[in-house]
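Data card: per-record layout.
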Amino acid sequence: MDSKRKKDYPPEEEDEDNRVVSSFPDEILERVLVFVKSHKDRSSVSLVCKDWYSAERWSRTHVFIGNCYSVSPEILIRRFLNIKSVTIKGKPRFSDFSLVPLDWGASIHSWLLVFASAYPSLEELKLKRMTVSDESLEFLAQSFLHFKALSLQVCDGFSTHGLAAIATHCKNLTELDIQENAIDDAEGRWLSCFPESFTSLELLNFASLQSEVNFDALEALVVRCKALRVLKVNRGVTLEQLQRLLARASRLTELGTGSFSQELAPQRCEELAIAFSNCKKLYTLSGLWDVSSLHLPALYPACTSLTYLNLSEACVQSTELSKLLPNCPNLRRLWVLDSIEDEGLEVVGSSCPLLEELRVFPVELDPFDMEHVGVTEKGLIAVSCGCSNLHYVLFFCRQMTNAAVATVVQNCPGLTHFRLCIMTPHEPEYLTGEPMDEAFGSVVKTCTKLQRLSISGLLTDLTFEYIGKYAKNLETLSVAFAGSSDLGMKCVLEGCPKLRKLEIRDCPFGNEALLSGFEKCESMRSLWMSACKVTMNGCRLLAGKMPRLNVEVIKHDESDELQAEKVYVYRSVAGPRTDAPSFVLTL
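The structure for this 587-residue chain is written out next.
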């Protein structure tokens, strides 16, 4: 170890009896820490003693930042010296529902400016809900010579011109993952910006882009990149073009198809089936826009090895699903639309015994179209009967019962994520008209490993009493249109020791609830409250009691001056942020 690093290590400490505490040699400790990958585990390691803190500081190469305002880039680079991979999350999750203005903040640019001098060997950057400009992407592409992997998920502010800069300058790029972004989709020519000598790409995902694709450039890129394992294209890629890509990339393990809107002659269908059959290692399949019963047989040859099937863009019916799923015996993850109805979920229960994750999304129809039934408690029970390994459920529906949820969790007690979204606010159990309290009481009583919970329907404070009493491993709770009084929120804050994120909207919780858990807020990553009964005075009191918390209020021109319409509370070692727009008040 060089002298500079050795000086950075503090001397060994003494315990309560004045005995020197022995430690591993520095070199051995750092070699051991290389195998500790979890950011939570590494954070725990750094708290053992000063020697371990310093060794962890030197050896860490990846950092995860769950809130971009919880720390500043300057503080980060003082703590960690050899970072090569950074993951940063920005805006609150409720920004997905247009509750956070677009110009709220969370820009990546100031971070990149600091990283350029402190981490010139940065190789990987993963961003979620951040604002990313074309200028930032151009700076990234030209400032980090060894840069390899970029992931942008639910980000905004950039266009395909920024992607063109990445393609042009990142000579060692292995991953380009663009997911669900609000992107200015100017053109598809950015794919032609990869140099003809470029061959390193292993993952390419541009499924969320809307523009037409320069297919010749895409095909040439796929041919050159022999290590390409993940390819997810947008709906601008036709079936004929998809067949050509598969013929050149049979080594793929993950595939996102283009559109299936074209009519194919029988011979073309056979050729497409042959192309899929050559993909022997495919375990993830997504895309499938406009797929129909005429196209599905072409997919069957590739289904045997699938562990993840994403049909959230494919409005398939139960009859089509009943033919597809029996060909997927190894399925672990399934995303579908509620167009499959309960009959389709019965097929899931009978065909997917290894299933661990199920997400059922609503078809994008008129929300007041009551003729569309979608899925109900009957289908969810059917899945739970046949899929006892379920640990993740996201389920959008119009009706549910307490007894049905109790049956589901009895069949699947290992659930760690249960997100039930009854789409009509304050909807009671449809058979009895009673609140849905006992449903979620069953969940938290039975599923002792529960980490994430989303609740909906007609709920009283009793639901929150159950959560506070039984959900001891809960980390994230999302609440909408629920509760009777401040008592509900108080029960959660006082009873859930591992709670990290609390998201609340349109609930009757006010100042008393907010202030009752002020000490708990300091151990949480964030608290979001919108359309509740919190006042500006209550927010000021919280800020005064807990100076290490940032208490922000989003105000609109038409907002009541006394009410705090949208409140975002989070812990930060960096103090109040300096880039807050005029409509964000930091207390």
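Known properties of this structure: Residues 250 and 278 are 6 Å apart (CA to CA). The first strand starts at residue 62 and ends at 65.

See the next section for split statistics.
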